[in-house]
Structures are given as structure tokens and as C-alpha cells.
Amino acid sequence: MSELSATVMNLPRRDAQDKLRGRTKYTNDRVRPDMLHAVLLRSTVAAGRIRKLDVSAALRCPGVRAVATGADAPGLYGIGIADHPLLAIDTIRYHGEPIAVVAAETEKQAREALAAIVLEVEPLAPVSTMAEALQPAARLVHEGWRGYEVITEGGARAGNIAWEAKSSRGDVDAAFARPDIRIVESSFTVGRQSHVPFEPRVAIGSWEDGRAHIQTSTQVPWTVRNVTGRVMQLAPGGVRVTVPPVGGGFGLKFDASIEPITALLARMTGRTVVLENTRQEEMATCLCRENAEIRIRSAVTAEGYIAGREAVVLMDCGAYGGEQVFLTTMTAHTLGGNYRVGATRLVSRAVYTNTPPNGAFRACNGVYNTFALERHTDEICDALGFDPMEFRKKNVLGDGDLGATGQVFEADVLGPMLDRMEALRASTGTSEAKADGRLYGIATTVGTWFVFVGPSAATVNLNADGSATLVTSGVEIGSGTMVQSLPQIVAGQLGLAPDQVIVREADTDAAGLDVGVGGGRTTVSIGAASIAACAEVREKLLRTAGEMLQTRPEDLVLRDGRVEITGRPGSGMSIPTVVAHAQATTGPITGSGAFTARNTPAMSGCAMGHFIDALDIPVFVVHEAEVAVDPDTGHVEVLAYRVVQDVGRALNPRAVMGQIQGGVVQGLGYALHEEVTITADGRIAQDDFETYRLPLAQDVIPVAADLYEGAPSMGPLGTKGAGEVPILAVGAAIGCAVARAIGKPVRQLPLTPPRVLRLLHEREPPPEFPHIAPGWASNTLG
Amino acid sequence: MTVIFQLNGEDCRFDGDPMTPLVDILRQERFLTGTKAVCREGFCGACTVHVDDEAVPSCLKPIGLVQGCAVTTIEGLSSGNQALHPLQANLEAADAVQCGMCFPGMVMSLSAFVRDNPHASRPEIKAAMVGNICRCTGYERIVDAVADRLEQARKAGQSVGGIHV
Amino acid sequence: MAPGVERSFTAASTLEEAMAARRQGAAVLAGGTWMMRDPRRGVDLPEAVVALHRIPALSKVEIEPDHVVIGAAVTHAVLGRALHAAGFEGLLTAAENAANPGIRRVATVGGNLCALDFAAADLPPALLVCEATVELETFEGPKLIGISDFLKDRHALLAEAIVTRIHLRRDLVASAHIRLPLRKAGDYPVAIVSLAVDKDKRCRIAVGSVEPVARRWTALEQAMAADSASAFDPERTAGLALEHNDFQGRDGKEAEGWYRRQVLAPLVKRGVAALLKTGRLV
């Protein structure tokens, strides 16, 4: 039995029964009567100066045990730059920003005490849009930006530009000056997307033996640990984070937010404190997928060769830099992906505004850049008269092609995947007949994404009852990695059944560093660390067994819970026998393993301000959508949806299919229904389920998917992350299909019925960006 | 005000504000946290319970209106060591669950639906799910599981649902 | 509510009991699906409420040969199951598709008519084309009022009254209720067109959600009556709708007024097609 055949299976989820019975205790199910309840005082203006903040009366209110303000946790945190206070200090930068927090015996008492806080704010005119923020005379959202601690060196920054990343390869000016090319230019704008995890951000903090202990609904226990230590200025190791099952994350919980506040209040009161966002708070302060503005120009020959390409991507980070600082990196790999391009230069800027801060959302940055790139590709085809499918087949990245940062891609992957899409379409047939008199469109699009590798650690303890305990900082957010792929991997390595593998939920006191669950990395990074840990366990196990069996360890295999002599099934002895012997002679059998990125090189000088210069594990997708558009009302119905996804190796094909269905539907929400707008006074207008329209059962269809295996991957057993990427090209496929159906350019998402009807009636003005200079270089900090 | 009602087959007494939403009493006083308070406005369905055998959102149900009613929560649907409700078993078999937070409400809505609609079509199943949002799964596996349940029940010639709550 | 004050809750068994509570200032609690969201809107719940669900007379749907009576405490779901009487297809569609199934099992007819700020309510346009009569119990006794006048004046009327029943004549040949949510269902419709045809083949049309309060589309009704040649031709009627569109669309987060106005003619077209499909217009 090979390692692979012992690992690949459609293992059911061990957490399904409890979840179906309502027994699973998420963080917000763990509130106990003896806990204090914390409630935040949030700003009701988008920008201002705090002139007075007096909490003394609130402290005297019934049931109140503590009130904290920014002065109680003065440290700043952030990604790349430390610009974010836990509670506003002197300056208010967004509507909804936390200013103070009350902990009381009941939530009602805490809310009543909020009214007793004296707050005087001098309002300032908010910088509401990126266009305003980039005006030369714009007020600075962060007056003191120069003084912030830079955590990661390398990005250019200035004023309202929180971070700028550039990539540049080849002579783009020369490419655009060629006589044999035509230039196609497109502009796109996209709104925010709210994650809407069913469990909002919630944390329970306590103070135990002089240290903070936070139970929280997070994807990043180590980030929460580090940020809490930083803002509270605690001694190293002063924070422990444990993570119960998480009721949905999708990237929202990839940053610390309210967690440190509970630790602060726990230290002040000596009590356990719970803080949970109401749904309104959760949606009004969601760290959304950012709104973005994209201008892209390409120089294309009559033969269909993309000689040159340049683009400016503006990403609204809101009031604080957060993930967008990091995500500026991704433009080189998403907008700079998909196609072979002669020379290319891309700049991506995270821009401060007085709006709620944005964050990470499944295939962050990639979703809208793929929409822009694929629509731009269709506009090239329209302008030059190419067939869109043939143009893609001719130009998609293949073996030896260069990415935007000069990375060399390995193997032909996208090309064969396009062929597989045609085969999939042939097997399913098309659905044009279902359009029933409405406007019909079909589009095939491609996308490039990656696995966010980075450090992970794992420990495996082999127990005398034959079970193994896997200890990592992994978190089960619903994707199944902790209950499916990881136990499968460990079982496959140790000759166990997956149900013999116990998976410990994240505890930063028990497991080593991990950068978190996101970027499709858990199966790859924690999986690889687990395999390394299993290698040490195997080695110890086989050595002990070898002594007991008087056989060389290299002649032994682990199979079906036994140590067997190679080629002699049923020989040898059971693993518990060996473990018991080891425990009595050399000690318990444990192994530890670690993994991190291999840092695939970029071409020298091509990447500036990047957190990742090149992709260690690229991931590709091909998505195809068929739509019908009602010309009377602008409603878009998705008639069929097909996916070919590069999975490297599918360890649990059924689970991967479940991720694809769920990810595509989130993408349909982004493409068609989910709209976030910012009001004149800087609020997110859609802060409830009445106005923020998530896709419902009637709005979706079964996705037909083909898993493409065998593309190169440094992931364990050839795996790539499969949960992140299904959302990547949905906006692209829907946008292109709708554009073809209505015969008008689609340059904005979401395609709500009113927007589509405006497009049909030519009432939708195309995006114009006066704040993006005509010359590419004028949009950079040099 | 005092409100007396049945909760998962036992008498239950509540003293307090009659406009308190039922979901808060379930979660905060009875620690029945399987009922989830997600949107609190009747759109998501995660707080669905049965009141006198009807699946209704408990977030908009003032406890005063529950006087004399029989309330069943997800914990009462298959309690203790009992087997899963057949619909739960179908959902498990379909590998439908992801984060899992919508499922208690989904099960409460759809268990009543399969009981009352043994011949429902796939579009009818979807129409019945309009008030139950799932952010993870993209729904189709849940629809599959309900369709499987109905088909198995029809084949077995039994009354659908089996468990009357 | 002031601290220490206990909220008063009356589950009235009779209309008299309900009116007594009402005189004391109690607000009427129907299914609760609108009122229970008040705290979310920044509005305190009333200090005293009176619930009507225990008054048997208000929880019945009576279908008689020449009329139908719907109790105010009847839920959408119950109405949907009970209302199988030819001519009321539109009202049935409204009852069976409003909001979502869980809400429909709780929300009542009376509650839907009395939610003052709910522009997208489904029942008002459907009842407008039925030319329903609303029965109120006032401090001075029972009172009957046409649905149009009720909707116009309900803010004042409801200060001293309870909606008890809805009376419908069975004079309709066919009706239809076309609603346009932005998804397939589940959100409030951005526009609603209800249509009904009486025994004289006159068409009544009402529009909901486009303006703050639903109203009859008199201009279109008159144009249809004057244009006898149109004879329920969907395209031609849609053309008339375009010509006689006198609605001021309200701007909302989900749709601007332009869109609500713009979709009316197509919804009329669908509505006429639905009427034809009943096969009762010949």
C-alpha cells in the first residue's frame, strides 16, 4: 500500500454530528453567567479629534467593573507598518472606530454605562474616497505617518499612500512604442465585499497566573498572541490563545481586532470578559474585501502577442493599513498572472481613507484583479478581432514563461486546463435553451493564485493505545483541513486509520508558530510540518520495532496499525506493542516537524515593496459561466457554471468539491448580489441582512467541476490548497458572460439588476479616474 | 411577567420581560446554544425552532407569545445518545457541513418541511430554504440531502421524518 | 423603558379586552416580526402591548359564496393554505411569497397592513385590487373603511383603533401579483404590481414598494378602459403603462427611484400574461 493510496479518501467530517445536533461550542456559545460583558463605545463620525474623554461617571454606573480607553493600551499594531491603535487615541479615523470599552456584570449594564461616558469630538471633513485621498492638498488621514514603526522594510510610503508595491520587467516604453501594436486601455472599479461569517468576531479573555488567556474565533492565533502582547506591552510569552471551532472566517478573522480588548479588561478586573460584536457592529466595521480601482493598458500585435502591459491598481485600505499593505504584493501575481507578456510594469497602492478599515477575504486582491484582467482580455479580443478562447489558449502562462516579477513558471498547466474545460463542457452540454428569450452569454476565464506558504510547526505524539495526537496551531474554520486532510495525512504516514489520529485544536502554549489558516495554506504548510513530525515518529518506531523483531528498520513498514516486515502482511507486531516497549525503554515516541516557504526567486530588480517576490506554489483555475440577462429588469440568472481547478493532488476529492461549490457561490454573491456602499458620512450603508444580499438557495446552481491533478507543487504529496481559490475567477466569468450577453462593456461589480439595467439603457457612466495620471510612472513614488 | 411553556418536552417557567426574544432565553438562561442568534431580524434562519410543531425564527418571537406553547430546539430533536434525526443523517452522509453554524436552524426548518411535504421537488426544497442562509456550502449539498431523505422515506413507504416532535 | 417598570403584556381573549388595553395605551402586537426589529432601528419597544392571537374571531379565514373574511391575526402561511377561491390568485401569491417561509408562519395580515414604514409590504397592493374593506374596532365601536382610504389615513386611524378583519367581495374573475425582489426571493421586492379583473372585465391595478405607500394605478386603469382594443394584450398594456407612468420612485439602499419606475411596465406585461394564463378572461 503506497503512502498516497493510504491517504487519499473521501473521509467524512468528524465534527459533522455535533454541528448538526447543535452541540459544537463555538466561542460565542461559551459565555457563562460569571463572565463580565464588554461593550464598545464607537465613533459616530468618520473623522475627528477627541477633545475630551471622561469615563469617570461610567465607572460609577451599576454593575460596571472597568472602563478602558486608548491610554490603557497605547501600543500600535499593523502589517508592514504599525499604524493601528486598539482604541482611538486623540484621533478618530472612521465611523465605528472603538474609542472606549465598558465591562459590566451584564451586557445591558455595560450598554447603559456607555451613555455616561463624556466624549467631545471636533469633527473633521472626512477623506471619503481614494480620489479625495490622492489630491495633492488632501488632509492626511495619518498626520504622523512618518513616525510609525516600519515592521517590514521595502515599501514606498507617502502621506495617504500607506504602501506602494511595484513590479517591472522588460522595457515597457519600447513595447508600447512598437509600430506593429495596438494599445487597448480599460478601467474598472469594484466595491467591497463583506464576509458575513455566521459567528461574528468574539473573544473571551481571562488573566491567569500573570498572563493573558484569550479564547477567540480567529484564523490566526499567533497574530492575536503577538498583537495582544504588542498593544498591551506585555513581556514576551505573556499571552496564550486558544481557538474553539470557528463559525466561518473567509479571511475576516485573519487579523487581530477586538481580542486584545478582552485581555486588557481581564487584567483590569481579574475577571473573565466576553466581547462579541453585534451583527450591526460586525457588518459596519467588517474588514471587507477592499474596494479597488484599476486602469490597465496593453500593447498587442495583430498576431495576438501581448508585447507590453502596464497597470495602476488603487486599493482602499480604509482608516488603517492592515492587510492591504501586504496585499499590494498580490497585484504582481494576479493582474500580472494568467498570460505571457513581453514587458510589464504594475503598481499597486494601498490608500488611506476615513472609512472602516478593509482586510483579507478569500483570494484577496485576486478576485477583482482577475475580473479586470479577464474583462480587459475580452476587450483586447473585441478591439483586435480575436476569438477569446483561442486568444487565451495562445497566451496563457506555460512552461518557462516569466511572471511579472521575473519568476519562471514550471510546466504547462493552464493550457491543458483549458482543454479540460472544453471536454467538461462537451460532457455537460450547454444551457442556452434555458435562456428562454432572455439575453444569453457564455464566457471562459482563467485565474492565477497561489498557496501562501510560510511557517508552520507540528508535533505528533504516538500513544500506547495506538492513537496519535497531532498538535498544531491549526484552526478548523469549516474548510475541513483539521478534520479531514490532516488526520488523513498523519494516518497515511503512520499506517493508522484517520480516526486514530486525534487533532488538537490550536493553543499557542502547546504548538509552535503558525501564520494562520488562510491563503489555502493549512493542508500544505501544516500538512508538510506534520509529515516531518511523522518522519521522526516513524524513525523511532521502526528503530524500536527493529530491535524487538531483530530486523533492520529499513525492512519494516507501517500498515494497518502494525509494524510489518516488508512484503509479509500480518507479520511483525502491533504499533501499541512497540510504543509500550519504547515507553519502558527509551521513552514515549514523539516527533516534531517544521515547514516554511522556500522563497522562490524573482528576477533581480523586478519586485519593489513586495512581501512575496515570487510564488512558491502557483494555483490556476479555469472558470466558465453561462448567463441569461432579463432585458426588462436587469436580472442575471446563472444558467450553468463549470470549474477546472488545479489542485495538485486532491486528498479528499469530495471535500474539495464542497469547497468549490461554496467558493463559487460566494463569488456569485460578489459578482451579482453583494453590494457595499459608503454613505456621505462615511458609514457602510448595508449593515444588516435586509440590505446586504447574500446568495440564497434559489440563486445558486450545482457547479460542475473537474479536478486537475499533477501540476508541480512543493506541497506534501503534491497537494495545493483547494479552499481559497474557488472564488478567484467568478467575478471574471460572470462579468465577461454578462458583457457578451448585453453587448456592452462591464467595468464594475456587482452586477445588480439596477446596474445591469443602467448598462442596457446606457445610463451607467464608465469609471473615470482623474486621480490616476496618464503616465504610469507618475503614479508611483519613484 | 411569568410565562409557562414546554421546552423540549419539559415544563419551563420564565419570569421577566415578556418582550424578551425566545432565542435569548434559550441561549442565555437555558444554555441551549444550538439555537444561533445570527442576524436577529428573521432573515438568516439560524435561530429556527419549532413552536407547536411549526418552524419559526426565535429571534422575533417575544416570549410573551410563547405562553402555553411547546417549543422544540435542535437539542430536543435528537437528544442524548439517540440516533440522529434521519435528515441529520442524510446531511452527514452528503458531507454537507462546513463551519456548521447554520445547520441547527437549517435542520429545524427542513425537518418540519420534509414532515409536511413528502413529495417535494428540488425547486420546492429550495423555495423552503429562502429563510435559511448558509455562507459556506453553496447550498446544493443541503438540497441533495433533503432530496435523498424524501426519496428514502418514499421508498421505505413510511411517514417522512419518523420522529414527531 | 424606565428602570424598574415592568412591561405590561396582555394576551387578550376578547376584542373588548384588547380595546381596554388599547385605551390604556397598549400597542398592538401581532406576529412580532416587525415590532421586534424596533430596537435594531433605534426605537424602544412599547411599554405596554396587547396581543390578539388568542381572539378566535380574528384568527379565522371564512370563505363564503359571495365574500371572504380574513381575521387580522391570520398569518401569511394560514392565509396561503386557506385562500383557495377562484379570483384571489394575486392575494394568494402575495401571502405565499412575502419575506420567507419562517416569517410567513408568524407574520399576520393585520401586522402587514399596520407596519407604517414598510413600503415593500406585499399585502397592500394585493388587497387594493380586491377593493378590500378593512374593519376596525375603534374606541367608538366598529368601523368599515375602504383599503385605499385606510392606507392613506392609517397613521391617524390606528391611533385609536385595532384592525380586526378584512372583507373581500368575490367579484373577481382573475388576479395576479407580480413582485420583483433583487434575488429570486428573500429580499423585499423593489416593485410590486397587483392586477385583478372583475366580472365586467375591468382591470384594477395597484403598485407597491415604488412609493412609500401602495396605491392604485388609476391612470393606467383608465387608459386600459379607454383602449378597448388592448383587450389584455401584454405588450400593448405595457405600452400604456409606459405612457401613463405617474409614479415617483423612492430612492433606497437597494434600488434608486429610477429603477423602480423603470420596471413597472415590464411587471405590468408579466401581470397581464399571468391573468391570461388563468384562462378566465375569455
Characterization of this structure:
- The complex is a heterotrimer of chains A (782), B (165) and C (282).
- Helices cover 26% and strands 25% of the residues of chain A.
- Chain A is an alpha+beta fold.
- Chain A has three domains: 16-23 and 454-595, 2-Layer Sandwich (Aldehyde Oxidoreductase, domain 4), CATH 3.30.365; 31-124 and 201-276, Aldehyde Oxidoreductase, domain 3, CATH 3.90.1170; 292-452 and 602-760, Aldehyde Oxidoreductase, domain 4 (2-Layer Sandwich), CATH 3.30.365.10.
- In chain A, helix 11 (366-384) packs parallel to helix 18 and helix 14 packs parallel to helix 15 (522-549).
- Chain A starts with 15 loop residues before the first helix and ends in a 22-residue tail after the last helix.
- The mean pLDDT of chain A is 97.
- Chain B is α+β, with helices and mostly antiparallel strands and 165 residues long.
- Chain B has two domains: 2-77, Beta-grasp domain (Ubiquitin-like (UB roll), Roll), CATH 3.10.20.30; 86-156, [2Fe-2S]-binding domain (DNA polymerase, domain 1, Orthogonal Bundle).
- Chain B is built from six helices and five strands; from the N terminus they run E-E-H-E-E-E-H-H-H-H-H.
- Chain B has helices at 22-29, 74-77, 86-93, 103-116, 122-128, 140-156, and strands spanning 2-7, 10-15, 48-51, 54-57, 70-72.
- Chain B has a five-stranded mixed beta sheet.
- In chain B, strand 3 (48-51) and strand 4 form a beta hairpin.
- Chain B is globular, with a radius of gyration of 16 Å.
- The two termini of chain B are 27 Å apart.
- With 282 residues, chain C is α+β, with helices and mostly antiparallel strands.
- Chain C folds into two domains: 8-169, Uridine Diphospho-n-acetylenolpyruvylglucosamine Reductase, domain 3, CATH 3.30.465; 172-277, Enolase-like, domain 1 (2-Layer Sandwich).
- Helices cover 33% and strands 23% of the residues of chain C.
- Chain C has eleven helices and twelve strands.
- Chain C has helices spanning 15-23, 76-82, 89-97, 101-104, 109-114, 123-129, 147-157, 218-226, 234-243, 257-262, 264-277; strands at residues 8-11, 27-29, 48-51, 61-63, 67-71, 133-138, 141-146, 161-169, 172-180, 191-198, 203-208, 215-216.
- In chain C, a hairpin with a 4-residue loop joins strand 10 (191-198) and strand 11 (203-208).
- The model of chain C has no long low-confidence stretch (mean pLDDT 95).
- Chains in contact: A-B, A-C, B-C.
- At the A-C interface, helix 19 of A face helix 10 and helix 11 of C.
